[in-house]
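It would be a great kindness if you could assist me with a short task in structural biology. A protein sequence and the structure tokens that stand for its backbone fold form the material at issue. I should value your view on which stretches of the chain appear to form regular backbone elements. The record follows directly beneath this note.
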Amino acid sequence: MALLKAITANRLRDGEVVFLKAEGVWVERLDEAALFEDAAAADAALAAAKAQAERDQYGVDVYAFDLTLKDGRPDPVKARERIRALGPTVRTDLGKQAAA
């Protein structure tokens, strides 16, 4: 299974986890995020996203993370990213997973 990359950050105004959809467009749902198969493309998108987030004072802690596709949907490799994408693990009736 090939690893993909997505880019995430925390929105400054409210701390919400956001994901890069396209150049300069941030969304709250991982399902809408741009997925990168090519490491060079992911690195270039990450550099641009960091610069734009800082310039616009939009987000902090911008970074790329690994994921795979599971049943055609993005599935983060690490637990930290699953929690950031879905919300709390002890109350699945709360957070983004409740809306899914």
Notes: The chain has one domain: 4-99. The longest helix spans residues 39-55. The chain has a mean pLDDT of 91. Residues 79 and 99 are 19 Å apart (CA to CA).
